[in-house]
Amino acid sequence: MTDIQSSNSMISSNNNYFKSSKSINELVLRLGQKSFEEINIICQHSDAKHKIPRSNPFLIQADIKKHVNRHENITNMKFSRQGKLIFSTADPVCAAQILNLEKIQETPTGVTFENITERFLIFDIPTNLQLSELADEIMHKNDMEVVELRRFVKLNSTQEFSPVLVTILGTFLPDAIKIWFTNQKIRQFVDRVRQCLHCYEFTHATRVCDKNLCPLCGVNHEGQCQGPEKCILCNGPHSATSKICPRHTVEQKILEFKCRNHLTIGEARRLYAHSSKTNYSEAAKINSTAPNIEEIVNNRVESIVQNITLKMEQQTTLLIEIFQKTIENLVQYLVSVFHQTDLKKSPNRKRQMINLVPPTNNPMQWDAGGSNASN
Known about the structure:
five-stranded antiparallel beta sheet; Reverse transcriptase
């Protein structure tokens, strides 16, 4: 994803740079045939050293309605911290009309747009090949609209092959492209970190900065620096241009976040800063409350176990009592049944039982030990 400034002619210089001959409006209108999420149009003062004066949004809306017929498709409008006015829309026709604006409330403006292109690198491209031919090959073999090509080659270099940065219309990037009968895998290109060479901040360009600080000590002085190294960005013991600076690492992550989510650089900074603060606060909150939560859980589990044990003991005692009463009732019932049976025996039944015993000639005698003996 890149900023594309208005141009109505093809630009090719020393075969290291190529730009489509299609106008900005034509590219934006062609975007309707591609996959994209939203178009961000950035209006800034025509003089880079000045900012667009802040005004009432109602007055800006009234002025925009006079020049943009499809103004109802503008989804958002806001001022950036750099003094720019950003319009967001998903309608390519509305975006093309905004791009034609030369003034906003009598303020001369220059217009760029973001969030409608993707960038990737292809390698081992012959340096003697015209970039216009490479653009035709990419567009002919793939369903792509090439917007820009930029060759990465050092000045006065004699190398035969070099990588080329390709910018295409749309925010969908395939896994590979077909070029010269081969399929080349591609991946999203993330730009390098850019610093102001006067104050070494990352939020503006060098041309708009009026400071002149030393990168080693962060102080404005003349001649060779004699002081110890101290980063003006993080106060660390290194130069402000060092890649080990934490601010440099954060800026690189912001650029990656911007490319992945197709955002403007200002929106990416704001969302990344908010996300970092949220993650830190949530982590701190979790770390501070974790012991309390663990203690509460342990107490709750212990209480539940004690309640369950008490109830089980009560149920067991109740079951034992019921069982004992049941056994006692059963024994009493059996005793009463046997007792009633002995009392109800009639003389006739007793006589019948005696007759069942077979007669013997020898009378039966019982000894004290419970055994019988015959004489």
